[in-house]
Amino acid sequence: MSVLKLDHVKKDFKLRDGLKTTTIHAVKDATFELPSDKTIALVGESGSGKSTIARMITCLETPTSGTITLDGEPVPTHGRKLYEYRHNVQMVFQDPFASLNPYHTIFHHIARPLMLNHLANSREEYEQKVIELLERVELTPATKFMYRRPHELSGGQRQRVAIARALAPQPKVLIADEPVSMLDVSLRLGVLNLLSRIQQEEHIGMLYITHDLATARHFSDEIMVMYHGDIVEHGPADDVILHPQQEYTKVLLAAAPDPEKHFAKVRAERARQ
Amino acid sequence: MTTQDPNVLLTVKNLDVIYDTDTPVHAVQNASFELRRGEMLGLAGESGCGKTTLAYSINQMLKEPGKINSGTVIFHDKSGTDIDIRKLSGKALREYRWEKTSMVFQGAMNSLSPVTKIEKQLADIYKTHRPDMPKKERHDRCAHLLEMVNVDPNRLAAYPFELSGGMRQRVMIAMALALEPQLIIMDEPTTALDVVVQREIIEEISELRREKGFSVIFITHDLPMLLEITDKIAVMKDGVIVEQGVSEDVYFNPQHPYTQRLLSSFPSLTGDRGSFVRVPRKK
Q: What Gene Ontology terms for biological process does this UniProt record contain (chain A) (predicted)?
């Protein structure tokens, strides 16, 4: 079983405005473990540092200090090792309308990571693998979808293609950065259910970044709450939602819409009158 | 005409809207609803279901090729006169808009002009609708508007890019309140905001509504939020209002299969999993 570990990871950004330089502490001190049999949700408001953590894990940013390790190996910074690391850590982006290239077919999108990894030897073999991947993300009949272009697909279908592409190099860790926030509400659960099934069947460690507490609770095993660069609370999903310890978590929970609680209150008030 | 309940503000009857393109799109089909004074109606549905089109046609703001095919929209003014919105045009229409019905637009964060200061953008409304108002009073009113939405009046001199998203949103709401309209249409006013800021703004809107007594048509796809804040809800699908009723009833006893599906798409925060199929792991 593989583990992704973050140990006292810190990231500062320097902003220059004329002669003034200000430092923004995007991530102050992040320490956590993501084993391959778990989904961890990372929640918090915009600007709290959620995406910076994702970008550091995927090597799009280097931490200012602290270490990130995968199976005990520190994250490489260059060369062959980095190349291999990136196959192990894949990302699903927020906007499926922007993350697929409109010029290329679905086949191209999914075959490319396979080619870069030399996972097949002939055109037939590639086609076979692409079909398998499309079936895994429930885009069937796969042969119908394979030679279409992104504009012919709906948002939900595109996000499934993005997931298939992320799965192609057989990653150990999958980072999903708000994977459903751009999708129509009726499609969201389908995509989340798919991600959840894949995570459990294939033992991929999943980091689910979101601001939606309700799905975070049901979708993940643990929840981490971030606020201004700090992980202020981290615990089993149900505990964090039902028995929050930190003030900020409580604020966040009070702000999330919950008709059940609301109508319970309304009815209680009516009964009192 | 039948006797009119004086508490009704807006009556929409059999409204039909078509986008007259090569393949005509029937964006709103036979929509009927009533809005009472001081009431908040939620319009829910997914993208492309026609909710924005419906809202725009109430204000006669549809652009070509969109047009109202049939049906009536009657605005029952406070003064007792009924205004048939479809018959308005020119000066009368300009007077009706913003004076009686104002709007908070979709993506409101980006609907302020980036090159004009907040004060000028707010004062524009008074310049157009109250041309006789002295400059001093205009300034005071603008400052008061910002106070109403909890923005520091000193920010009148700021450009929109100097404000945060939540503040820009508040300025848009202040703008809608400027002429104390009887109806405000809010088209996804909080979609791009954080949950915490969203909650603050929603509460401010409810507070102002209690204070001023205007009606609101609130459009969003965020059903749980809508259920909490509205009195009545109409659910739209493919241009048709498939269900409407009191929010509480719609939540506990949805009649239409689409409403049921939409509701089950939102797992409850504190309750059970809805249609989430994830198998809970044994701990």
A: transmembrane transport
Distance CA A11, CA A32 (A): 15
Whether residue A263 and residue B251 make contact (CB cut-off 8 A), yes or no, is yes
- Using beta carbons and an 8 Å cutoff, which residues of B are at the interface with A? 46-47, 194-199, 221-225, 227-228, 248, 251-252, 261-262, 264-271, 273-279, 281, 283
Q: In degrees, to the nearest 5, what angle opens at C-alpha B205 toward C-alphas B209 and B201?
A: 170
Chain-centre distance of CA A263, in angstroms? 33
Taken in order of first residue, the domains within chain A and their CATH numbers are: 3-272 (3.40.50.300)
Among residues B208, B204, B260, B200, the alpha carbon closest in space to that of B235 is found at B260
State how far the Cα of B123 lies from the Cα of B121, in Å rounded to an integer: 6
Contact A221 B221 (CB under 8 A): no
B269 and A221 within 8 Å at the Cβ level: the answer is no
CA distance linking residue A49 with residue A215, whole number of Å: 20
- SS3 state at B254: coil
Measured between CA atoms, how close is A10 to chain B, in angstroms?
Answer: 24
Reported as a single tens digit per residue, the pLDDT across B251-280 is: 889 999 988 888 888 887 876 655 444 444
pLDDT digit string (tens) for B96-148?
A: 888 899 999 877 667 888 899 999 999 999 999 999 999 999 999 999 999 99
Q: Report helix, strand or coil for A213.
A: helix
**DSSP label at residue A172:** S
Element of type H or E holding A39: strand A39-43
Report the run of H or E that residue A108 belongs to, with start and end.
helix A106-116
Angle at A44 between CA A14 and CA A23, to 5 degrees: 10
- B227 and A259: CB-CB below 8 Å? yes
Interchain contact, A258 vs B47, CB within 8 Å: no
Contacts of A46 in chain B (CB under 8 A): 194
The pTM for the full model equals: 0.81
Min Cα distance B232 → chain A (Å) is 14
Q: Assess contact for B18 and B26: CB atoms under 8 A.
A: yes
Report yes or no: B275 and B265 within 8 Å, Cβ to Cβ.
Answer: yes
Question: Using one digit for the tens of pLDDT, what is the confidence trace for B158-195?
Answer: 999 888 888 888 899 999 999 999 999 998 888 777 88
Q: Provide the CA B241 distance to its chain's centre, in angstroms.
A: 17
For chain A, give the percent of residues with pLDDT over 70: 100
Task: Answer yes or no: do B195 and A186 touch at CB < 8 A.
Answer: no
